[in-house]
Amino acid sequence: MATTNITDTGKRSTLDAIGAFVGSIVYRRRRLFHRSLETAPLRVAVPTTTAEVNSLDPGRWHDVRSEGPAGELKAGYLVHRWIGPDRPSLIYIHGSGEQPRNFNKSADNSFRRIVETRLDVDANLVLVMAPFHETTQGAYIDALGDLRNYVGILATTTALVDSLAKRLRAEGAPAIYGVAFSLGAWVLNLHRAFFRESIDCYVPICAGTEPHIVFVDSVYRGMVDPGARAQREYLEEVLSFRGEFTANGNDDCSPMLFRYDRLVDIASHGPSYAGMHVEVLDKGHFAGQQAIAEMRSHIRRATGL
Length: 305
What we know:
Elements: H1 14-26, H2 42-48, E1 50-51, E2 61-67, E3 73-81, E4 89-93, H3 110-116, E5 124-129, H4 137-143, H5 147-171, E6 176-181, H6 183-194, E7 201-205, H7 212-216, H8 226-229, H9 232-239, H10 242-246, E8 256-258, H11 266-269, E9 279-281, H12 285-288, H13 292-303
């Protein structure tokens, strides 16, 4: 695993380009943000969205309703393993379009592949489900016809993570770790930017602090409505939170990026982590999703579990 020369992107991932192109064909009638761009920006929505956690009962899904500028949205969480209130806790947030409730081997569930399977750590394990991830990827894509829903997904999930972390701390957890991939990693970085408490170590995999770049510059832009893509400055104003993230001077973040990623381009998103050690995997976005052993090793090193 390489950890140097993070801007060397000569070997771009063809698989990423193909995957994004196929997605743009499949969802050509449901381009992202095609219905509306009207929304509060993340810097307003995240601090003012609430999502209350009432129970830590293990082994079942708990539904949560958020309230905030994006309206009322439904999210959820699963206390997958509970070994005691006095033990460390690991909160995991899944990637975009996943099926976190589905633990079948064929399902797109990064928690099952990375954490549940063979990540043997002495910690409580909590899985967070973002809004619009209860059923199919198609339903998730349809929800993203409105930029407001994307902001709501990020704000609601960030608020839920904060509520969970505070509840776990109140129960006696000596340490709380946040681990996430892709969509979930944007959430972790938002928590670090706007809440800055309750989580001891952030492990964001495959994200930065400027989501708008994915929608206007990456191979993923083919999924986005052309009219929305043309509003680059507006999307940046709504979605960028780099300033708030870098203002947090705590040594509490251990990011991982993929060198040949064409969705979360390392040259564009790596600067968000200036001054931090960035673990770099020599993979593209889709190939990197299959590098389970490497991601587990990074999580263990970062958390010390």
